[in-house]
Amino acid sequence: MKIRKTQARAKPEKTRASDLDVALRLRREDALPAAPAQATQAPVQPGQQTQASADVPRQAQEQKASAEFRRRQEHQSAGGRRGRVAPEQHTPTTGRFFYALNVPASVTGPLSEAQRKLKGNWRITTREQMHVTLCYLPSVPLARVAELKALGTRLTQTLGPLDVRLRGTGYFPNEGSPRVWFVKVEAEGLDELAAALRAGVQALGIETEELSFKAHITLARKKGPAPRLPPLLFDLGWTAGGATLQRSHLQKTGPVYEQVGTFRFQAPAQSQPAAPPGEDSPHSTHHPDANSPSPAPSPEAQEPS
Fold it and tell me: Is there a domain that residue 161 lies in?
């Protein structure tokens, strides 16, 4: 019986000891300094982007798309019809140019009368377009046109007026399959002037036509099946007092020529001997004789411009 009482009494003491340990442990925890609060956001590692920085490219893309949409709307308004985008304007940096002799009205008139004989798909050269090409330049930087003007002035200032004569008509490349109908031109010193212009242009590093020079006036170009005319002879001529530099603008209806430079032959003209009685003067004009043969064009003749 005594033993049982001792055990019964020991239980409350053990319980009180446990409560005391818990209280002491709580006091010690209260006395300790508070632990630092953990960061709510993990630090950004190198190479990683935050959500805010990731939104920047998306915002830039949205702004770019909005600007592109406004631009297309403006183009559609300029285009007229709904949904039609107006084409962007293109400013050329090169152009087609050529040195030439202009043809006076006293010569273009009879040539125009001869053109009326053409039948079929021929596109005639208008009187305003008639010229004698001296040197053709297919692609000239527009920034270098001033150099071409200076070259023309330098090469023509020592020349005198040229006595130009017309001869017979011909076809290029040949009469069997013609593409161009032209009339041959002759003048003393004309070949030398054309050669000097070509050499001067090439010395500037500007491209020139590779075909050999054959003086002519283009009268018509063939655009489809069309009958050919028999050879025509012209006894026409004029005194050329200068040359020009012209730019060719290609249009659907044909080329349009813009004169951009003029060069006078400044040397004094040589006196012309009087024509013997019964012979025509160098500048007499006659209507073409459709029954007269004309010299056959040279096989290496260039395509007239």
Answer: yes
Three-state DSSP class for 240?
strand
First to last CA, the chain: 144
Range of the domain at 184: 94-264
The residue annotated as part of the active site, out of 216, 283, 286, 287, is 216
Q: In this predicted model, what pLDDT tens digit does every residue of 167-190 receive, in sequence order?
A: 999 999 888 889 999 999 999 999
Q: Which residues of the chain have pLDDT under 50?
A: 1, 6, 8, 15, 39, 271-282, 284-302
Is 292 inside any structural domain?
no
Active site residue 75: no
DSSP 94-146: EEEEEEEEE--HHHHHHHHHHHTT--SSEEEPPGGG-EEEEEEEEEEEGGGHH
Q: CA 305, CA 303: separation in Å to the nearest integer?
A: 6
104 lies in some domain: yes
The rounded mean pLDDT for the chain is 78
CATH assignment at residue 155: 3.90.1140.10
- Number of domains composing the chain: 1
Task: Point out the catalytic residue in the list 131, 249, 286, 287.
Answer: 131
The yes-or-no answer on residue 216 being catalytic is: yes
Q: What is the dihedral of CA 252, 255, 260, 262, to 10 degrees?
A: -170
Structure pTM?
Answer: 0.62
Residue 202 inside a domain? The answer is yes
